[in-house]
Amino acid sequence: MKKRTADLLKILTGSLAAVFLTAASPDNASKIAASSPVKIQSDTMKYFGNEKKSVFSGNVVAVNDNFTLTADNVTVVLNNSMDVDKIICNGNVNFKTKDIVSVSKNAEVDQTSQTAVLSGGVKVWQGENFLEGDRVIMYYVDNRIVVDKGKETRVTIIFKPDDKEKPFESGSKRP
Question: What CATH number is given to the structural domain containing 43?
Answer without folding.
Answer: 2.60.450.10
